[in-house]
Each structure stands twice: as C-alpha cells, then as structure tokens.
Amino acid sequence: MSDSERARDQTLIGQSDAFLELLEHISLVAPLVKPVLVIGERGTGKELIGARLHYLSERWDGPFFKLNCAAISEELLESELFGHAQGAFTGATKSRVGRFEAADGGTLFLDELASMSLRLQEKLLRVIEYGEYDRVGETRTRTVDVRIIGAANVDLPAMAARGAFREDLLDRLSFDVITLPPLRARQDDILPLAEHFAEGMVKQLRREYFPGFSASAERTMLDYAWPGNVRELKNVVERAVYRAHPSRAVASIEFDPFQSPWRPQGVVPGLAEREQGGDAPATPAQTEQISYPYDLREYLAAEEQHRLEQALAAHQHHQGKTAEALGLSYDQLRGLLRKYGE
Ligand SMILES: Nc1ncnc2c1ncn2[C@@H]1O[C@H](COP(=O)(O)OP(=O)(O)O)[C@@H](O)[C@H]1O
Ligand SMILES: [Mg+2]
C-alpha cells in the first residue's frame, strides 16, 4: 500500500449529526494520554477511530500497534502483549519483544478486549496502572509508557457485573468511552460512504470515472439495515461497481453474495458426523414429561442461548475457546452471539 492509499484508507467519511458529534468527541479526547474505550457493532469503524485517536495525539509519530485479543489463544496473546524469555515455553527458542515494549511512547489498540481472560486482564491492569510488566518466563520487571485504546462490541459493564470482566480494569480503561452508532442510525452517511467506496473501486479497476448509482440503487441502500455496518457497505458497493458496466449508472445492489439457486442448503461440515455418532448429549426434552402444545422454536432458542451463556462463562468469555468447546466455527459462534445480543 502506498502512502497516499494509506491516507485514503484513513479518511473518515460521514456527515450525519451523530458522526460529526463523534469527530468532535475524538478531537477532544485524542490529545490526552489516557485510556479510551471504543464501543460499537462490528464494522462501525472502531479500528479507524482508534488510529484517528493516535494520529491526533502528540504521540502521532510514535509507534501504533493493533492487536485482536480474540484471534489467538490466551498463551499466544500473553506473549504477543508482554513478550517472552528464551525457553519460556515449548517452542520459545528465542526471546521475544512484546507489543507493549514495541509500542513504548506510542499507542496500543486492543480489539475485542472482552475476550481477554481474567488472568491477562490482571496483567493489563498492572501495566496501565503502574507501567510495569514482566515478559513471560522472566522475573525482571520492565517499565513502559503506552496509551491503551480498547475496542469491544459487547456490553462491558454487564460483563463486569457478571464477573466476566474485571471491574477495576473497566474503571481504569473507561476514562472516556466513545460509542459508535450503527450505520442504520446514521442514514445521512450511507450515500457519501457508498460514493467513497465506489470511487475507490473505480480507481482499483483502472476505470476512467464513476458513473454514479441509479436512483433505485440509492433507495435500496438507504432502506437496508446494514447489520455489518460500514464494512458490509464497502463490500456491497465494491461488488456492485465491479459487476456493473463501466459507463452506466450502477443499478444492481446485491447484499448476499452467497445467493444462488445452487447454494448447498443447511450443509455444515462436522454436523452430520456428530449426528450419526449417536453420542450427542440428551437434551432435557428427551427425558422430561412434556406437555403439549409448546413452541418448539422458542424452546430451542432459549435452550441455545442458555447453553451459549454456560459455555461462555466456562471459558472466561474467550470466544475462540467457547466456539471450539461447542463444535462451532468462530464465525458461527459470533453469529449466535449477535442473534442473542450478547
Ligand atoms: N467513517 C468511515 N469512513 C470511511 N471508511 C470507514 C468508516 N468507518 C468504517 N470504515 C471502513 O469500514 C471497514 C470496517 O471498519 P473497522 O474500523 O475495521 O470496523 P470495526 O473495527 O468496528 O469492525 C474498514 O474498511 C474501514 O476502513
Ligand atoms: Mg475491527
């Protein structure tokens, strides 16, 4: 990526009142060397806002690192964050500098903070509070000066109330909280964003110009709820542009790229074997006396939600581990969490 492409990538587009208020809030809090939490649904622009907070601070020319706390195991995350000594664990053939050390004098953006284990949360609190940490497998205390920006798409105070997130860490992190409104709550941003992504795609395709959207395409985009927010809009627009005739207004907007008469319906690898294995745990419905009628779907949804909560609690809300424990892919688990508003 060239510098100008990166600059373009950082451009924040939006003109809704909610978005303009957000920008003001960001300029206000950016210069302070205090932790900030950025809360919002997936795809609302949390990472972009994190970068903006860094580049508007006096640390702008210092290091800026991003780390997703849900993407890797607890052990790996610990050594990513704090580094490790040579021989600290099997496979640690060399010592390693962690992100905290590398981000000294700069900013560290911690995405999906809610999936961090309680143990790592404690280490995080220590480094925020006292600037102190140890590399994994070392006893020598090191010091560092890093501004933390945390991001989450869940209700952290509710998690803290249930004991799934440390209250003291939450207090420390939430000096200020920036909550990003979902795209459906900022209608006025939809078309400017669509235009922006369309122009970007036109450049990428080396076409001469962007012929615009048809009125009905604009209507379609304005009427849609955008559950995946700006990320989804970007995908939808880029797909629509590249499929469209280079010199005719883009008229066809398709939201679901999987849509096809040949889509494999309900085929999920792994499910069939488990069902055939016959060792699936008995559900209460199989053993209870049942009184009819009852709403099967409602019952199953409640059961699903209950099992999900149990499994999350059993795995300290680590989504990767919970997904594994339930035989789900990470994306499937995320889908369920969204369904139940976790
Ligand atoms: N206001 C905005 N202007 C331009 N691009 C945006 C804006 N908000 C989000 N994006 C783009 O949408 C995508 C998702 O944003 P990201 O920050 O990764 O969201 P999140 O971290 O909340 O899931 C990225 O490609 C980002 O560049
Ligand atoms: Mg993100």
Task: Give structural notes.
The chain is of the alpha/beta class. It contains 16 helices and 7 strands. The chain folds into 3 domains: 3-181, Rossmann fold, CATH 3.40.50.300; 186-243, Helicase, Ruva Protein, domain 3, CATH 1.10.8; 283-339, no CATH class. 46% of the residues lie in helices and 9% in strands. It has a 5-stranded parallel beta sheet with strand order 2-3-6-1-7. A two-stranded antiparallel ribbon has the order 4-5. Helix 6 packs across helix 8 (167-173). The longest helix has 19 residues, at 296-314. The radius of gyration is 23 Å and the shape is globular. Adenosine-5'-diphosphate binds next to helix 3 and helix 11.
Poorly predicted spans = 276-288
CATH class of the largest domain: Alpha Beta
Named CATH topology of the largest domain: Rossmann fold
Helix share bin: 40-55%
Distance between the termini: 36 Å
At the fourth level of CATH, the homologous superfamily of the largest domain is: P-loop containing nucleotide triphosphate hydrolases
Shape: globular
Topology as a string of helices (H) and strands (E): HHEHEHHEHEEEHHEHHHHHHHH
Structural class: alpha/beta
**Small-molecule components bound:** adenosine-5'-diphosphate, magnesium ion
Biggest sheet strand order reads 2-3-6-1-7
Which architecture of the largest domain would the CATH scheme give at its second level? 3-Layer(aba) Sandwich
Number of strands: 7
Percent of residues in beta strands? 5-15%
Number of helices: 16
